[in-house]
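Reopening this one. Same input as before:
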Amino acid sequence: MNTIVLLTLTGLGLAALYFLVASGLSLVFGLADVLNFAHGLFLGVGAYGTWWAAGNLPGAGGEGLGFVLAVAFGVAAGTLVAVLVELVLIRPLYSRTIEQVLVTVGLSLAGVALLQATWGADARPFPRPAWTRQVTGILGAQVPNGGLLLIVAAAAVLGALLAFLRWTRYGLIIRAGVENREMVTALGIDVRRAFTLVFAIGGAAAALAGALGGVYFGTVSPGQGGSLLIFAFIVVVIGGMGSVVGSAYAAVAVGLLQQFVNYYGASGVGDLCVVALLAVVLLLRPQGIAGKVAHA
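Same output, byte for byte:
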C-alpha cells in the first residue's frame, strides 16, 4: 500500500511538471496556431534565472521569502524572453507554418548552445530550500516535498488559468479565438495583443516549471528544457490542442503511467508506454481527450 501511495504521489508530481510546460504550449497552439519548439528555452531561462538569482540577487535564495524572490526572478526572465520571441520572431511569421517550425527549432538549438556557452554543459546543483529536500508522511508513505510543491503549484496555475479564461475580457477573447479566430478578427478585435499575452502566460508557466523542476531534480542543465518538451508535446496532443483541462488530464495519465511502469517494469519502459498511449489516442480519438472534432 505504501508503495502505491508513493508511486501515485510522485507520479502526480511528475504530471504537475509536464502540465506546467504543456499548458502554455497548448494555449499558444490553440489560439495562435504556432507549434513552438522553442518553448523549452523559456523553461531553461526560468531554471537558470532562478539558479542565478539565488546566488547573486540581494535578498534572494535560502529559505522562505528568499526562495520565492529567486523563483519570481526566474519566472519574470522566462516571461520576458517569451514576449520578445513572439514580438520579434513569431509575429512576422503567422500563417507561415514551415517558417515557424524552422525558426523555433533553430531558436531552441541556439538557446541550448547559449546556456552551455554561458554556464557550461554540465548539470549544476540547484539551490533548494532545506524543506524541499525533506519528506512528508502520507498514508504511511514518505513522499518528497519537492514533488508535493509541484502538485500544489500546478493546481494553483490550473485554477488561475481557468479563472482567467472564464472571467476576464482577454480570457474570453482567447477562448473565442481558440474556437474561431476568424470570427474574433471580423468583430474588430486585435488578436495580436492576445497572441502576445498567451506567449507571456506560456512563458511564465514554463519558467515556473524550470524553477520548480530544478527543485524536483536537484540540478539544472542546458538540455533539461528540451527533454521535458518532448513529453509536454505528447501531453498536449493527448489532451487536445488548445485545451488546458485536457492537458491536465493527459499530464496525470502520462505521469502515473510513466512512474508505475518504470517501477514495476524495466527502466525506460514507461517512456515507451507513453508513446504507445499517444499512438492509441491518435488512432481512436485524433482530436485528443478534450478536443473537439473538426468539421469540414
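So the earlier flakiness isn't reproducible anymore. For the record, The radius of gyration is 19 Å.
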